[in-house]
Amino acid sequence: MVGGNARSRAPRECAHDPEAWPDAVVDDIAAAVVQTIARCLAAALAERGLSRRGAADLLGINRQTIGDVLDGRTWPDVATIARLEAGLNTPLWPPLARR
């Protein structure tokens, strides 16, 4: 478990320009991973023509949770990422080289 106040700010708040999320420059490694997950998730949804609501219905994941991940407002947990990856049949967690 991450200690201290590492998750006291949303991932997007770790960006140099939070309004540019998920394309902003991010120095924090954990926020950069969430940023890559958000970009991969957005691409997977676009490729499948799914809205946030459509993805929620298909995957059985709360629409707000999907929106929060896409918008960098939350630190997604492993269960959520695993369900998104399995349901979309696409990897979201970035390999080390993509961070």
Topology:
Blueprint: H1 29-48, H2 52-59, H3 63-70, H4 78-88
Helix pairs in contact: 2-3
InterPro entries: Cro/C1-type_HTH, Lambda_DNA-bd_dom_sf
Protein name: XRE family transcriptional regulator
GO molecular function, one term: DNA binding
Summarize the structure in words.
- The protein has 99 residues and is mainly alpha-helical.
- Helix content is 47%, strand content 0%.
- It has one domain: Orthogonal Bundle (434 Repressor (Amino-terminal Domain)), CATH 1.10.260.40.
- Helix 2 packs across helix 3.
- The longest helix has 20 residues.
- The radius of gyration is 13 Å and the shape is globular.
- The model has no long low-confidence stretch (mean pLDDT 91).
